[in-house]
Amino acid sequence: MNKIEPRTLPGFLELLPKEQIMFNEMKEKIQKSYEKFGFLPIDTPIIEMSEILLAKAGGETEKQIYAFQKGDNNLALRFDLTVPLAKYVAEYYNDLSFPFRRYQIGKVYRGERPQKGRFREFYQCDIDIIGDGELSILNDAEIPSIIYNTIKEIGFDDFTICINNRKLLNGLFKELNQEENSVEIMRIIDKLEKIGQDSVVEILEDMNVPKDTVNKILEFIQIDGSTEEKLRKLEEMNIQNEVFVQGLQELKDVVKYAKIFGVPDENFKVDLTIARGLDYYTGTVYETFLNEYRSIGSVCSGGRYENLAEYYTDKKLPGVGVSIGLSRLFYKLNELQAIKMEQKSISKVLVVPMVEDMSKPIEVATMLRKNNIPTEIYIEDKKIKTKFKYADKLQIPYVIVIGEDEIANDVVSFKNMVTGEQQTLKIEDVIKMLGQA
Amino acid sequence: MNKIEPRTLPGFLELLPKEQIMFNEMKEKIQKSYEKFGFLPIDTPIIEMSEILLAKAGGETEKQIYAFQKGDNNLALRFDLTVPLAKYVAEYYNDLSFPFRRYQIGKVYRGERPQKGRFREFYQCDIDIIGDGELSILNDAEIPSIIYNTIKEIGFDDFTICINNRKLLNGLFKELNQEENSVEIMRIIDKLEKIGQDSVVEILEDMNVPKDTVNKILEFIQIDGSTEEKLRKLEEMNIQNEVFVQGLQELKDVVKYAKIFGVPDENFKVDLTIARGLDYYTGTVYETFLNEYRSIGSVCSGGRYENLAEYYTDKKLPGVGVSIGLSRLFYKLNELQAIKMEQKSISKVLVVPMVEDMSKPIEVATMLRKNNIPTEIYIEDKKIKTKFKYADKLQIPYVIVIGEDEIANDVVSFKNMVTGEQQTLKIEDVIKMLGQA
Description:
- The structure is a homodimer.
- The first copy, chain A, is an alpha+beta fold.
- Helix content of chain A is 40%, strand content 20%.
- The first copy, chain A, folds into 2 domains: 17-44 and 81-335, Bira Bifunctional Protein, Domain 2 (BirA Bifunctional Protein, domain 2, 2-Layer Sandwich); 349-436, 3-Layer(aba) Sandwich (Rossmann fold), CATH 3.40.50.800.
């Protein structure tokens, strides 16, 4: 028979079991963290009607989308979890309780040109809090505490949650009569870290932004110091524009209450140059950086938006949320050997029979499993060396050997594969030991 | 703005959060059960090259598949988890340890005509044990213990794992010179429960199967009694055909060792009329029925196959596995109000502030979360009735009310939403109580 070469599409992350165990542990820790903050799970289809998914899209998104026909339907694969959330909330509005706190962890699809660390299929881990008509700014202050807890859970201490408020930028541009340039200016400011301050000035001057105005923008993005100092300097700019004033008040509230929500100062910073996606977010915006692995970029980002589902309903549904791009994060951390997961294997014990009649070894494996100890039994007829090599490769921490002697004395040989230590024990004592571990 | 009606494609299961919590609990219990038996996780892409997915397919499968083009590639969505497993094992053969025990829980796609309880997107929960060249029959005996443990875990006691061995049927047909009719006869036998014995005889006679042969087939499928009696009667048929003899020995081994693997007699049965998918399985086959909900059909099925990945590699890779069709199972059980899951809510506590300054309530919520107690705080400025109604609708079991009095006395009002009982407690005591629950 002609063989088809077994291969996986480029841009699709597929892991070996050892990495998959780490990936799953990271995913579960994120899930548990989201649940600790009371977010409800939802699981929307990966396929939706194109009409639904593309209600708002356009430009890059539309080009990247996986779209196809089946029967009479124009279908597409979701490219994020936000549009399906908007559909979900509009569709089930009457059945939901507001504020609606939901998390969703699932795969999304973007047919990008594949490059290293960019995936066409990848996991997003989203949380959002959706209000019915209105949503208190204190929700914006809770978000950093969720980010903080989640990033800690996946094993990092040295990270910074950066926040800003888009109303400050929008208010400033209004004050400076630069409203029509605001999108463009924000894009330039967003690049500040990459291109440097001189280039920013140059580009602004090329746009014929008046010198006074450029200076005022520079004054704004140069504001530095502690969070308190930044807030004070923003006050001192003495901008009277209503949007700016509102943004400043919101930022102050978020700073104040994020602290009470338990976010330490060293993990939290106001960064006035963060703008995020240009037309979606309307207030608080978030980015999160692992300080030792800054090159990865933001690992958890999001913000406040005015109206989640305006394409599907007249209801006003403001929200705030953040997302972790898990596949990319995992891939990058793995590449940098920076994954800090505890679990190395699924099985805790490998039972290795050294007898013909498998009854006793099977009984022992069954007892361990009854006591909730993940256990394998090596059933195949192979040399003992092969069996131990199997345990080794799978990083199973304990091996139980059962031969004629052990059966005669009603004991097992219990080997710690990490220390090499070997003991002869009653199976009940093994269970006690491992049950507590 | 013109609104697009928010809607989900027919045939796609989408749950409200309350049901999603139950669904996720069931899914997690299946996963934990699979892991207790030492299966390793893998997670293959939902999109694969059509060439890979359709290497074997044809007929119904090919019609149902979601296929499309992107760039120059012919792509398709996976319609099961077995073909991706075959690809995976062939692709990463050198990196895997054999026997390779893997589980995969994920969505698969079939563009079927949508009908009640049949889904176009649904979860399968698969386990397989793949041998390199050969695989001991004892693996076939372990599978029922995994099914037993898994179905118990998701809350059922009254169920029957039915096993058969296809070699018995194949050997019988050889013995009776009915090899060319074997596929057709197996299909008829598989329908026995549905159409009754008389119809089976009638159809066989219409096929010009000789009367003697029909009687021998009837003798076979009429074999009843306890498992031991069935095995004895199979012996007494005195069929010398080699395949039959081998099948009988395998069946006896599986029966003997499944018991040692801890499967109780009352949950286990030899059923000689089970044939399963006609060309894939070659030995042991499994079906599992919830006796109180027989109408659902088999909830966990599978079998032994000769060669997993013959379309991709010359390596001989025999295997044995079973699958749970989770979406359908959940849907049907939910319809029958037969779901036995424990978790009703994500949050254990709702903190309800009755003060203007949210600092204290936020501190309390943060303390609870630090102690790993899933907690929400109702931040919005609403009436107390609305806040309690929210807890009620989300079935959050405890509410903590914090007003001026509580703050003055450094206590909280702690209400059990199930019993209605209300206590005034120190927050430390609440944490102690809930931490132990």
